[in-house]
Alanine glycine permease (Leuconostoc lactis), 47 residues
Amino acid sequence: MTQKHQLARTLSGRHINMIALGGTIGTGLFLGAGGSIQKAGPFGHML
């Protein structure tokens, strides 16, 4: 009575859209944080 369970390795259109949206938001946050650190310095960014 051995059964092999496998995960479904599929990506739907919704999954791809969410990955792209997350990448876009993450890039915007990363660049925004870089701009504020450049202006205020590392300590100013933490405030």
About this structure: The radius of gyration is 20 Å. The mean pLDDT is 85.
